[in-house]
Amino acid sequence: MPMKRCKFSFSRVLLSIPAAAFLLCACSNSRNPIPEGVIPDYAAVTPEQETFGHELLGQLTDKFELDFDDQRLNEVEKIVGEITKAAGADQEPWHIHLFKAPQVVDVRAVHGNHLFVWSGFLDAVEDRNERAAVISHELAHTLAHHNEPAEFSLLSEIMLQTFSMAAAVAVSYASQGMVVINAPDAAKWAYVQAAGLDPIDRDYPDDMEKEASAISLLLMSQAGYQPEAALDLWSRAAANSDFEDLLDEISRDLSADERADLIKGMLKKLPTWTAKLDRQALERGDDSFDLSKGSKANSNDDDSPPTQDN
Ligand SMILES: [Zn+2]
User: Fold this and answer.
1) CB 139 within 8 A of CB 168
2) Which end of the chain has fewer beta carbons closer than 10 Å to its terminal beta carbon, N or C?
3) Can you tell me the distance from the alpha carbon of 272 to that of 310, in angstroms, rounded to the nearest whole number?
4) CA 22 to CA 129: how far, in whole Å?
């Protein structure tokens, strides 16, 4: 019997080598890139995502105190309401959580329609257009499904059991976090941490940063904000190292200079993108688009409360 078990394991290892190669190839192509000028279609929240968001909120409230009284929460809710409306993603509630944490300059959106804002961000970036720039960028990552949880398939479970954790992590990097694995919880946790796939600490590869930047500028424009505010913010950070350090969490892997360059290039293309969206809206007979303004009719002057619940 022991001999048989050993043989089985060995054959599994052998089988896993081509499987790993297949996985590396398959996963690098598994994500459909979002073309520039396109706002991704909204995907309804699943019960699992709903649960995930609430669990994450539970973990965060162990460390940070929720603030319901800060007047600036209204402004954040308004921004989220307008941006998600422009994205056609306002049919389900967005859960907006503000933490009383002046020392933390950060904003994170996760799947399940949750947005976490730490008050240090509101202190650091005071202009509403600049706040909209950062918030819409975070929402864009979620709308583009960049921060879907690491999922685990049978194939990668075999890999986790037969290869070292390092090999599995390498696969995850190669696949930009799109790997799917069914492994023991502890292994999954180690994997997610080691591969930088923790939903709240997620760093994104360059292609995803480009996509989120493009979507964000488009959404700002469609919602009646000034997309140029994104360039103002990152140019100011690029010119002032103290301010750049302050925005370190928001900037993630890119420098302020790199962000400013990326946005500058995209702002040049933005009029073409919005014109195309307007044409498409006209073809659909969508009268919420106001061609005289070159963008979606501005809901920004409307003080109706945004879709939000807590
Ligand atoms: Zn980003």
Assistant:
1) no
2) N
3) 38
4) 45
**Rounded CA separation 306/93 (Å):** 9
* Interval 121-159: pLDDT, tens: 999 997 999 999 999 999 999 999 887 765 555 555 555
Residue whose structure tokens are 């919420």: 288
- What is the distance between the alpha carbons of residues 158 and 12, in angstroms, rounded to a whole number? 8
Ligand 1 centre distance from Cα of residue 104 (Å): 17
Contact 83, 223 (CB under 8 A): yes
Range of lowest pLDDT (47-56, 108-117, 178-187): 178-187
CA of 223 to the centre of ligand 1 (A): 19
Dist. CA 252 → ligand 1 center (Å): 7
Tell me, in angstroms, the distance from the centre of ligand 1 to residue 254's CA.
9
Question: Which of 174, 181, 194 minimizes the C-alpha distance to 149?
Answer: 181
Distance 213 CA to ligand 1 centre (A): 7
Residue 204 CA to ligand 1 center (angstroms) comes to 6
Q: How far is the CA of 137 from the centre of ligand 1 (A)?
A: 6
Residues 220-253 pLDDT 10s: 999 999 999 999 999 999 999 999 999 999 998 8
Q: Check if the beta carbon of residue 150 is closer than 8 Å to that of residue 181.
A: yes
Going by DSSP bridges, is the β-strand pair 114-118/107-110 parallel, antiparallel, or unpaired?
antiparallel
Residue 149 C-alpha to ligand 1 middle, in angstroms? 16
* Total-model pTM: 0.72
Q: Is the pLDDT at 106 greater than 70, yes or no?
A: yes
- For the beta carbon of residue 275, count every other beta carbon within 10 angstroms: 14
Cα dihedral value 19, 24, 26, 28, nearest 10: 170
CA–centroid distance, 207 to ligand 1, in Å, is: 10
- Distance CA(200)–CA(110), nearest Å, equals 7
